[in-house]
Amino acid sequence: EGLKSARARGRKGGRPRVNQKDVDRAVKLYKSQVYSVKEITEMTGISKATLYRYLKDNRE
Q: How far apart are CA 58 and CA 50, in angstroms?
């Protein structure tokens, strides 16, 4: 009943998606081989696991 009333008010559940611009920037920085993974995650605000997941998806 709580979820139903939230949906009726226009609320959505779940975790917000990662900003695609930040992911694209992080992948570009990683491929430039100028910055470390730690520096990239600090600059973009995405986690190390997220960066590696997107790198794996781009490779295939």
A: 12
Q: How many CA atoms lie within 13 A of 15 on its CB side?
A: 3
Q: Where are the domains of the chain?
A: 17-59
Q: What is the pLDDT of residues 5-38, one digit of tens each?
A: 888 898 888 888 899 999 999 999 999 999 999 9
19-26 LR contacts (CB < 8 Å, sep 24+): 22/46, 23/50, 23/51, 23/54, 26/51, 26/54
DSSP state of 9: T
